[in-house]
Design a protein that fits this description.
The complex is a heterodimer of chains A (148) and B (371). With 148 residues, chain A is an alpha/beta fold. Chain A is 22% helix and 28% strand. Chain A has helices at residues 2-11, 33-42, 100-112, and strands spanning 15-18, 25-28, 50-58, 63-71, 76-84, 90-92, 115-117.
Amino acid sequence: MDFIKTIVELFEDKVEVIEGMDYPTFKVKKEDFLSVVTSLKTSEVLEFTFLIDLTAVEYDEYFEAVYHLMNLSNKQIIRLKVQLDKNNPSIASLTRLYKAADLQEKETYDLMGINYEGHEGLKRVLCPDDFEGHPLRKDYVMPDRGSK
Amino acid sequence: MSEEIKEITTQEFKLNMGPQHPSTHGVYRAILTMDGEYIVDVENVMGYLHRGMEKIAENRSYTKFIPYTDRLDYLAAALNNWAYVGVVEKLMQIEVPERAEYMRVILGELQRIASHLVYTASFAIDLSGWTAWLYMFRDREKILDLFEMATGARLTLNSMRIGGMPSEFPPEFFPALEKLLDELPGCFEEYDGIITGNEIFQARTKNIGVMDVDTIINYGLGGPNLRASGLKYDLRKDMPYSVYDRFDFEVPVGEIGDCFDRYLVRMQEMRQSTRIIRQALEQMPEGPIMAKVPKVIKPPKGEAYYHIEGAKGWLGFYLVSDGSTNPYRLHIHSPSFVSLGAFPEMARGGNVQDLVSVIASIDIVLGEVDR
């Protein structure tokens, strides 16, 4: 597919193609992430203007932020994956590029505890404000509600 | 406004709306910052119905999670089932038998009509059109009867399995469906007469909550809300899944993206859905309805994203498997949640009665927002 080649040529060593996925998948370094997404959105040949979905997954050694972007006119979908530190997972916020990121970053912060740098007003959205912990983390234990 | 009135300094104040409020369509709360009658800002407060669906999925086997998807968007259970079994099938590379695909299309499109009927009914009732409510619910009842025949349940259908369908439609299903398809066009005419042409309805929806297509895209809204703003984009047509490439149907679009356009797009979509169901009935082949799948579902290590044109927008599931019997991570991309993100900007600048019509027009279901 041509646009994969374009992306690889444009970003050279900033992106790494992961083979064998359902959608073209690119591994991006955390420090390059914001500049890569900015070019993906604003570049005239790529135009990934639609943020389909953003989320995060916890693995044994690291967290991984996962983004699905779409080019509406060429009907292309790509996936970006960024590895984050296990102890203090944080990544640049996309709120300045996509308004869609606002609510979904809040959700991921709430449930997975990913810190989005540059997000103004990052707070819990589904759990109550005084909730402790992040329920989607693997080490989260349900608090004991007392014996029946 | 005269010069005198402009000079009066006003003080902003907060107004609470919900969580128990008839026009929030469930337990959703909005904190409105008001300047007199006009809305300066809206703060979304949600999560009252949060059940931790994504966490529940990690503790259930793949098959056991299907009934939970019914309870996401409880007005469109079949479509939720479809998106979920779709992602597992995609990861396991299961080819679903053709007959099952057609059965899914029939159930899915019936579900879309049922969901849009609740939408139009509650839209009308939110704007004090009490009579209209009964017309839509009269006809939705017939669709629910069909669901009861096909699956045994009326709302929480649990209608699909990984690899196909659990059972054939019963013999009485088809004549009842034919009868419904004959009746529906007349019903749509009735709705047009009672709602679409109504002067009060038009006055309260036209040019209200306008959002242009670029902003809608920026907010990540798919489905009818995107099309209402004028972009002809339908996953069934533009990135066909299942057997949708075999049907001939139109993709209705709006012009300016106001509340009226969002309503009109859905009204026309219902008509297109009946067309799709008719074609599906004609084309439906004989054959098996279940692919050969192992008794214990164990997808290979890997991940997949699958999304469909849901009733409220693009409903997506992101599944990560570690090769065990339970999902390692299941993320639900819910269209209602994303639509609520755009709601404050749509409501800004209007007054409270406009806000009611905006929230009715974007079509949210709180079961799906809060998951």
